[in-house]
């Protein structure tokens, strides 16, 4: 499980960075999204990976921290997802404005000659 | 009772702009006077609150005033922490806010919708970032600030702003990802996000985890260095700041200081003298990076043709000086750096406002505004002609005088606060252990002092050249039409610099006390972790 997760995070980050450095605004936004997914998974993994453990207290096991998963990173991921989503939407608007004003989707607003 | 009331006042800098921003949203875009009045009233109230909080913080020192937001004890719940440094930043923010809001009422608030709402949300984010005592909460407030700043940098629209804004947003989104990675690494190693708790646990980290912890802290640091504009993470800054509308650029002068504030706070809290094996971590990087930024900034200042870029590079010089000073890791130098930060922030803010007024007489600014209005559409077309208010005589003389004072301040010549600030910095770099200590001066200190002096020289050359070209040899262009209400904030900010010079003694005592408590964070940690819970009515005290 650890290997799969770290591979997923690594591949997503690498693709994200590559796309971020591309000249088209659409590529940049997809790159930023991929990076934010990778970061969300990364935050999640920082709470240690556990199978079949709930983050919410049940009446059966109060006072037994070993039974539970760490709930804090999950709450953090939730916040990070919301913020990341909002920022992506905002970036999309700016991207469209830039396309409308300059007539090109190059990040510098003009094609390289 | 009054003590209790003052205690709750800590929340005001966050809640007040939030409410004002939401309230302003209710009114139609055409009711500008009402919107501006509410917005300005909020900023003035904020200044009052901030000054009150400053006296509270000063009275409570060396302990910090801690506010448990959910009434949960410190490492578990989110806390707001008020100490001298955060109070200082709050005051500085509200002063800049008033200046740029007054300036914006003259014409810039009409260049796009919801200016005041976004502005208030920006203030909320800034104040929250200065007050929070929790890393993740810091991230949230940071994002609030950034989201508002994205809106503001695009205020007025036009191809130039959209292009600069696009770059600005992309860079900051990438930096936010780094922020999250850093925060989660720190959490993964230490299991806490509370700054005071982190500071307490870092000396006890097992040696095998130390590398992970330092990697996390370094990644977190990079996120703030992007914000502060350290070379080579700063190429986005001059275009974004010079493309932004003048009142926006004026408040952005504090935005790059947020990064500095957090670096100062966290590096001294986490890696101060009590941090065991990690003590002093990152200081060399800050010092070297700061000096590289100063070099880059001073070359940029010399190379700038347009005044907007000149101001943008001045932001970099100021950031670089502060980073290098923090990197020296000495209480005396930090005190001088704080004074320099206040002085240079006020100066740069005034300079950004002034640039727009001066350039209005030349064709460039008129073109930008025309494009702005065109892009924005017919709805606001009436805005250009509708210049009400008093146009003052002798405009050029007053503008010229303000420009000269800005130059003197940026250069660091007497009699203004720029001189006091640089003098304090250089004096404390040469005498790190206090005056009269015959310790040898290290090579790094010499280089840093040389860079401080050289950056002053570069600012003087650039300002003289620009000043001569604008005010003495202005062949083309006409006398700009400037309203009194637009000059008031510029003159006000410059007067504040003068006040800072005259009151340098008390101001410096405050800064030194701030620096002392930053370098001895035990009191901060203790007061956060021992903050008493408010007992609900009827709960028996145990």
From TrEMBL, chain A:
Membrane topology label: Multi-pass membrane protein
UniProt superkingdom: Bacteria
InterPro entries: CPA3_antiporter_subunitC, NUOK/Mnh_C1-like
Main localisation: membrane
Membrane-spanning residues: 26-44, 75-97
Pfam families (UniProt xref): Oxidored_q2
UniProt keywords, alphabetically: Cell membrane, Membrane, Transmembrane, Transmembrane helix
Cellular component terms per the entry's GO annotation: plasma membrane
Keyword Cytoplasm: no
Family per record: Belongs to the CPA3 antiporters (TC 2.A.63) subunit C family.
Name of this chain's protein: Na+/H+ antiporter subunit C
Source species: Phyllobacterium phragmitis
UniProtKB/TrEMBL annotation, chain B:
Entry keyword set: Cell membrane, Membrane, Transmembrane, Transmembrane helix
Keyword Ribonucleoprotein included in the entry's annotation: no
Cellular localisation: Cell membrane; Membrane
GO molecular function, one term: NADH dehydrogenase (ubiquinone) activity
GO cellular component: plasma membrane
GO biological process: ATP synthesis coupled electron transport
Spans through the membrane: 6-27, 39-64, 84-106, 118-146, 166-190, 211-230, 236-255, 285-303, 310-331, 337-355, 390-410, 446-463, 483-502
Topology in membrane: Multi-pass membrane protein
Main location: membrane
Domain NADH:quinone oxidoreductase/Mrp antiporter transmembrane, first and last residues per copy: 133-431
Highest taxon above the source species: Bacteria
Pfam family, one: Proton_antipo_M
InterPro entries, sorted: CPA3_Na-H_Antiporter_D, NADH_UbQ_OxRdtase, ND/Mrp_TM
Matches recorded under NCBIfam families: PRK12666.1
Family: Belongs to the CPA3 antiporters (TC 2.A.63) subunit D family.
Protein name: Monovalent cation/H+ antiporter subunit D
Organism: Phyllobacterium phragmitis
């Amino acid at each position: 499980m650890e290997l799969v997760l770290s591979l997923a995070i690594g591949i997503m980050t690498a693709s994200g960075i590559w796309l971020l450095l591309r000249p088209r605004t659409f590529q940049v936004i997809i790159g930023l999204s991929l990076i934010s997914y990778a970061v969300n998974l990364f935050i999640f993994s920082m709470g240690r990976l556990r199978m079949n453990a709930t983050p919410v207290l049940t009446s059966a096991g109060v006072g037994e921290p070993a039974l539970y998963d760490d709930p804090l990173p999950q709450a953090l991921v939730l916040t990070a997802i919301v913020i990341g989503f909002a920022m992506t939407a905002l970036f999309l608007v700016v991207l469209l404005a830039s396309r409308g004003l300059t007539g090109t989707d190059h990040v510098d607003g003009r094609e390289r000659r | 009772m009054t003590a209790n009331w003052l205690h709750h006042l800590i929340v005001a800098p966050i809640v007040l702009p939030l409410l004002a921003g939401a309230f302003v949203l209710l009114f139609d875009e055409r009711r500008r006077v009402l919107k501006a009045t509410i917005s300005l009233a909020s900023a003035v109230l904020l200044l009052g609150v901030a000054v009150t909080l400053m006296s509270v913080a000063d009275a409570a020192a060396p302990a910090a005033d801690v506010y448990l937001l959910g009434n949960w004890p410190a490492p578990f719940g989110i806390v707001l922490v008020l100490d001298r440094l955060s109070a200082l930043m709050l005051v500085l923010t509200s002063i800049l806010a008033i200046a740029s809001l007054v300036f914006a009422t003259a014409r810039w608030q009409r260049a796009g919708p919801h200016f005041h709402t976004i502005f208030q949300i920006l203030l909320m984010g800034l104040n929250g970032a200065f007050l929070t005592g929790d890393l993740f909460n810091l991230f949230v407030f940071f994002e609030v600030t950034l989201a508002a700043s994205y809106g503001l940098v695009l205020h007025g629209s036009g191809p130039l702003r959209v292009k600069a804004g696009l770059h600005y947003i992309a860079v900051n989104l990438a930096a936010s990802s780094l922020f999250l990675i850093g925060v989660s690494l720190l959490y993964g190693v230490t299991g806490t996000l509370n700054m005071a708790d982190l500071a307490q646990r870092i000396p006890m980290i097992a040696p095998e985890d130390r590398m992970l912890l330092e990697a996390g802290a370094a990644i977190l640091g990079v996120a703030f260095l992007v914000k502060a504009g350290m070379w080579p993470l700063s190429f986005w800054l001059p275009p974004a700041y010079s493309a932004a509308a003048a009142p926006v650029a004026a408040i952005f002068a504090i935005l790059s200081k947020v990064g500095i504030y957090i670096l100062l706070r966290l590096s001294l809290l986490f890696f101060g003298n009590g941090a065991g094996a990690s003590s002093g971590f990152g200081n060399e990087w800050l010092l070297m990076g700061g000096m590289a930024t100063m070099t880059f900034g001073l070359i940029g200042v010399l190379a700038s043709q347009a005044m907007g870029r000149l101001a943008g590079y001045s932001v970099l010089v100021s950031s670089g000086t502060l980073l290098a000073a923090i990197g020296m890791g000495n209480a005396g130098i930090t005190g001088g750096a704080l004074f320099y930060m206040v002085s240079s922030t006020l100066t740069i803010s005034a300079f950004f406002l002034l640039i727009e007024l001066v350039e209005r007489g030349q064709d460039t600014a008129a073109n930008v505004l025309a494009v702005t209005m065109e892009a924005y559409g017919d709805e606001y077309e009436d805005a250009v002609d509708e210049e009400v208010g008093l146009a003052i005589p002798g405009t050029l003389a007053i503008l010229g005088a303000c420009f000269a004072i800005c130059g003197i301040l940026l250069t660091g010549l007497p009699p203004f606060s720029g001189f006091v600030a640089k003098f304090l910095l250089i004096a404390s770099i040469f005498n790190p252990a206090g005056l009269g200590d015959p310790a040898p001066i290290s090579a790094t200190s010499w280089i840093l002092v040389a860079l401080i002096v050289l950056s002053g020289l570069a600012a003087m050359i650039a300002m003289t050249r620009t000043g001569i070209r604008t005010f003495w040899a202005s062949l083309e262009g006409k006398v700009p039409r400037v309203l009194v209400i637009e000059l008031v904030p510029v003159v006000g900010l410059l007067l504040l610099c003068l006040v800072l010079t005259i009151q340098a003694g008390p101001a410096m005592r405050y800064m030194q006390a701030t620096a002392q408590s930053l370098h001895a964070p035990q009191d901060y940690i203790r007061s956060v972790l021992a903050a008493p819970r408010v007992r609900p009515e009827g709960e028996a005290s145990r």
